[in-house]
Design goal:
Layout (H helix, E strand, L loop, with lengths): L1 H34 L4 H5 L3 H20 L11 E7 L2 E6 L3 E5 L5 E9 L3 E6 L10 E5 L4 E5 L2 H11 L8 E2 H9 L2 H5 L2
Antiparallel strand pairs: 1-2, 2-3, 3-4, 4-5, 4-8, 5-6, 6-7
Length: about 190
């Protein structure tokens, strides 16, 4: 049910954004048509409603497709997605279960994490996982997990390989809010 409601909201948001972008594009084409009366812009701007409607249609289709790409998919309903680089995603369901999945469909549930261009560093969640490891590093390029049994083991790697300290890890909703709020929230579906 939540997925359907969120999907309808996204369609509504896409239609509003497409109308705004089509209006801006229409005004730009109309202005260019007035500046250069013998140009393509002048010929196209004669049929104003058709120009605005077709622009809005093309823009709305583009925004709809963008919504389901790696860069635009932030989840629907009670499912959230966060792109972290190298076409890898951290997921969360129901605001409770945060997890990452490599291409071999190995799922690791995590609590807090941070990431850079090459790796995701996380504290694992024992509530959902069967393993007894405390920390994991996900190499985003090779798609491999490296597990650390204890905090002490991970802290040794922090010193040796310049990994982020566990104190820098944040919960999913903070990363999600940082990535999807601001201009992305207002200008994209």
């Amino acid at each position: 049910m939540f997925v359907l409601i969120h999907f309808i909201f996204e369609l509504f948001k896409i239609s509003i954004l497409a109308s705004i972008y089509a209006t801006i594009l229409f005004l730009v084409i109309l202005s260019l048509g007035k500046l250069k009366p013998d140009s393509w812009f002048a010929r196209v701007s004669i049929k104003t409603f058709k120009l605005w409607f077709q622009s809005g249609l093309v823009i709305s289709i583009g925004l709809f497709i963008y919504t389901f790409t790696y860069w635009g998919n932030h989840g629907l309903g009670d499912s959230s997605s966060l792109p972290i680089g190298n076409f890898k995603i951290v997921h969360q369901i129901d605001g409770i279960s945060t997890y990452m999945v490599n291409s071999k469909f190995n799922q690791v549930n995590i609590e807090e994490f941070t990431f850079d261009n090459n790796n995701l560093y996380a504290k694992t969640s024992h509530f959902f996982n069967n393993q007894e490891d405390d920390y994991v590093v996900w190499d985003l390029e090779t798609n491999k997990y490296t597990f650390f049994k204890t905090r002490t083991d991970y802290l040794l790697e922090v010193k040796q390989n310049n990994f982020p300290n566990p104190n820098e890890f944040k919960e999913f909703h903070l990363h999600y809010k940082k990535h999807w709020n601001g201009w992305r929230f207002w200008l994209l579906p």
